[in-house]
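As the next step, I selected for study a record pairing a protein sequence with its backbone structure tokens, which the following lines show:
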Amino acid sequence: MPNVILLAHTPNPEKTVASAAKLCYSSSNIMDLYDGLTDEKAADFVEMLSEIGHESPIEHASFTFGIEGVSRAFLAQITRHRMASYSVKSQRYVKEGAFEFVTPPEIVADPVALEAYKESMRLAQESYDKISEILTEKHKATFMAEGKDEKTAARLASKKAIEDARFVLPNACETKMVVTMNARSLHNFFRHRCCNRAQWEIQEVANQMLKLVKEVAPELFKKAGPPCLNGPCPEGKMSCGKAREIKKFYEEMK
């Protein structure tokens, strides 16, 4: 299952946001504005920003997460959120020996599907290893013919081989990443990925991320979550129809 860690964040995120917002309406010195804000005043100002829809100041607070135990399928989804920074374990430079993989809960719940799934993972690993071996030998011979010593040729050949061997690896292949988003981007992310219609893996990650940022900036993320928390569901006929249960879940999130 996914595991999310909050690695770092803007110090005093709510105070930073409030001072940036106050600057828009004041000619005071920046440090005077910042030092004059108590935590309570900062929280009140952040709440006011939320009420009037003034979102640009919250971009000044950023949050960095470590995310592990997720699939390459998850990677394809989260990187659609373009206002963020990503550093991801490379399949080009990291050899996938006995690769870890993510198993969807629906497959875990069905013994027949689970057995077929495990077999497909075994075959993927077998193919990856075989292709890596074939290409490594081929590239090693080429590098040695170019004058490289055997040790150097073997190292370069292995790196070059896995560039192409990785193409047989499945979406299920486990990966890990470091992700940084500002608070405004996070609100957008939570609106889309905390929704009950989001795919299970990214919804789980989004909920873990939301729980972590609420702990360090509760006022800033007081209304964060799926759209149905703060109004009608925008999914229309595609709605999950569980707005009451969802509201209860996020109200109890600490």
